[in-house]
Amino acid sequence: MAPHALLIPLPAQGHINPMMQLAWKLVSHGFLITFLNSDSTHNRIHKANTLNSFFDNIRMISAPFEFPPLDSLEGIENRIESLIKGMGPSVIDKVIQEINAREEENKVTCIIADVWMCFGLQAVATLHELPLAAFHTALVSLFAIRYFSAHLVSLGILHSDGIPKEDKKTKYLPCMPALHSGDLPWLWAGEYMFRKGIRMGEEIKDIKWVLFNSFIEIEAPVVETLSKEVGVYPIGPLIPPEFLIDSRTSTKVLPSFRKTDTDCLQWLDKQCAHSVIYISFGSTGILSEKQLEELALGLEATQRPFLWVVRSDLMKGSEANLPVGFLEQVRDRGCIVSWAPQLEVLSHPSIACFVTHCGWNSVQESITMGVPMLCWPYFADQFLNRAYVVDVWKLGLPLNANSQGIIKQGEIVKGVEILQESEQGLEIREEAKKLKIIARDAVKDGGSSWNNFNLFVTAMKRQPNE
Ligand SMILES: O=c1ccn([C@@H]2O[C@H](COP(=O)(O)OP(=O)(O)O[C@H]3O[C@H](CO)[C@@H](O)[C@H](O)[C@H]3O)[C@@H](O)[C@H]2O)c(=O)[nH]1
């Protein structure tokens, strides 16, 4: 009997993508996969991706629960709570019963759930005598700072609502870089996120396998510290192996929530090597009208080619408006798309640098493709990721806002020029080349993530009575 994993993602692009990559990897190791979404998320993915080879190998199912994908932060607390209830333990129990009743020969043999979907799930796994693994889509450091945050309260470093007592750059954990107080990943959503993070740590502590889409080499001290408390298994980067070969011919594109515009790849083919600035704010980052204008004018002023993902909801409150005359001014030097095949873009030889909101997938994809970054974080873990990119790995530069919170056009021009033309930029590009190799080695035979993944797969393939 083939092992059969039930995968339960959080319905947000940045969480579904790595879960799909994990699904793909498990299929290549002989697993059957059932991929569970809420009804609305399931329908949206199918609508945006009519023909995609992903669906040939992975069974996509949905739970009867209307939950639109999390691609805006509006009312986030209530939406997360409603998701945790609507797709909670009793629903998962029913889904497993239905699959097992239908498929005598292919019963579910393990559950892998996003850490946000694990609340109360251990009881269901125990009831069905199934192993449960939690999947964390970002840095181990993000989980660690949440996990140890109650301890930081007891030490008097944080107030009981998660706000730091002192507003200065602090080494909150000895194993992590110093962070500005505003970099703490719960502050954007206040006490709710802080408490939820602590609850998550308590819930996950008893789960034997916690898989991380990261790799040990980039945050070894944190992995070592957290492993004393939790079963930490970094298995990333989960980027499909086809993308890790420089002379790749694969056209595999992950299904996403939005229609992918692949024409930009032909535009990239026409550009010189290492010349193009790629700009994307992931699935949720938004800009004010003024901020969008400054970015556009900054790109114009660089006089360099650029590929910019302008999602229809990139601008706060209305359809994104580019400054009057901007398109006429930049002409063929700029390519604007509403959703890019990002992995293919980042692995294209014409890309010089990535202006990124520092969502973890974007950062890890950039590392794995050896592309230096200009960091423009927006919320959640993105400030923590920036601290690693800039201060620890030295793979990029921060884009600094002025006193009104605006990143001005000159800052963008300066960032690109430093990366492309200065001694400091050369050092950053050298670091990017080194870390690209380390990232790829982690998933090669015998690499750290390869070892963890194989340990996990072997354990999941073992029959319960073995
Ligand atoms: O035009 C685009 C833009 C993005 N992507 C992909 O979409 C994903 C976006 O993920 P990420 O870069 O992590 O950004 P978010 O969508 O913002 O991700 C959420 O989830 C991440 C993982 O938990 C967190 O680190 C982020 O802070 C959170 O916002 C990546 O795989 C990109 O390759 C595309 O394919 N095309």
TrEMBL record:
<dbReference type="GO" id="GO:0080043">
    <property type="term" value="F:quercetin 3-O-glucosyltransferase activity"/>
</dbReference>
<protein>
    <recommendedName>
        <fullName>Glycosyltransferase</fullName>
        <ecNumber>2.4.1.-</ecNumber>
    </recommendedName>
</protein>
<dbReference type="InterPro" id="IPR002213">
    <property type="entry name" value="UDP_glucos_trans"/>
</dbReference>
<keyword id="KW-0328">Glycosyltransferase</keyword>
<dbReference type="InterPro" id="IPR035595">
    <property type="entry name" value="UDP_glycos_trans_CS"/>
</dbReference>
<dbReference type="Pfam" id="PF00201">
    <property type="entry name" value="UDPGT"/>
</dbReference>
<comment type="similarity">
    <text>Belongs to the UDP-glycosyltransferase family.</text>
</comment>
<dbReference type="GO" id="GO:0080044">
    <property type="term" value="F:quercetin 7-O-glucosyltransferase activity"/>
</dbReference>
<keyword id="KW-0808">Transferase</keyword>
